[in-house]
Amino acid sequence: MKEKKNEQFKKGILPMLILQIISKEKNYGYNIVIRFNELCDGMLTIKEGTLYPILYRLEEDGAIISEWHVPADNSKPKKYYSITSRGRQILDEQWLVWKELEKVVNNFEKI
User: Fold this and answer.
1) How confident is the model at residue 7 (pLDDT cuts 50, 70, 90)?
2) Per-residue pLDDT tens over the stretch 17-52
3) Residue 9 neighbours by CB under 8 Å, 6+ apart
4) Parallel/antiparallel/unpaired status of strands 64-69 and 78-83
5) How many Å is the Cα radius of gyration of the chain?
6) Disulfide: which of 44, 50, 65, 66 matches 40 by Cβ 3.0-4.6 Å?
7) Cβ atoms 32, 20 nearer than 8 A
8) How far is the CA of 11 from the CAs of 51, 71, 76, 109, in angstroms?
9) Which whole-number Å values give the CA distances from 58 to 3, 15, 46, in the listed order?
10) Distance, C-alpha 36 to centroid of its chain
11) What CATH number did the domain enclosing 51 receive?
12) Residue 63 lies in domain
């Protein structure tokens, strides 16, 4: 039961956290997964199968753009994602909502 509730919570916050990672630097899928899991310190984890549908939705919404890069050593090309100005606006709005929600939740801790 606890895992199911965590999954529901995670679904709502994942796009914001992924967008935050991308906002710091242009990044590719596997590296986003690694960075996300490092930052969550085991509390939340994602796999590539969870990440890519979120990236596709963010791209559809105009929050990110993608471009392929071929490394100088001609190894496998990687699709890099970067945030757009619309994405920065969305992210700023989401952080404001998160901060307001955090205050409300903290009020309940006091009772």
Assistant:
1) low
2) 999 999 999 999 999 999 999 999 988 889 999 999
3) none
4) antiparallel
5) 16
6) 44
7) no
8) 11, 33, 30, 24
9) 25, 8, 16
10) 8
11) 1.10.10.10
12) 2-109
